[in-house]
Amino acid sequence: MEVSTDEVRDLGENKPKGHEFVGDIYKEVGKSIIGQRHMVDALLIGLLTDGHILLEGVPGLAKTLAIKSLSQALDGSYSRLQFTPDLLPSDLIGTQVYNVKDGSFSTKKGPVFANFVLADEINRAPAKVQSALLEAMQEKQVTIASDTFNLPRPFLVMATQNPVEQEGTYPLPEAQVDRFMLKVIIDYPQYSDEQQIIRNQLSSTPNEIKPVVSLDDIQTAKKAVREVNLGEKMEKYILDLIFATRTPEHFKLNKLKPLIRFGASPRGSINLALASKAHAFIKGRNYVTPEDVRAMALPVLRHRIGLSYEAEAEGYSPDQVVIEIINGIPLP
Question: Which of 10, 36, 154, 164 is 20 to 30 A off residue 67, Cα-Cα?
Answer without folding.
Answer: 164
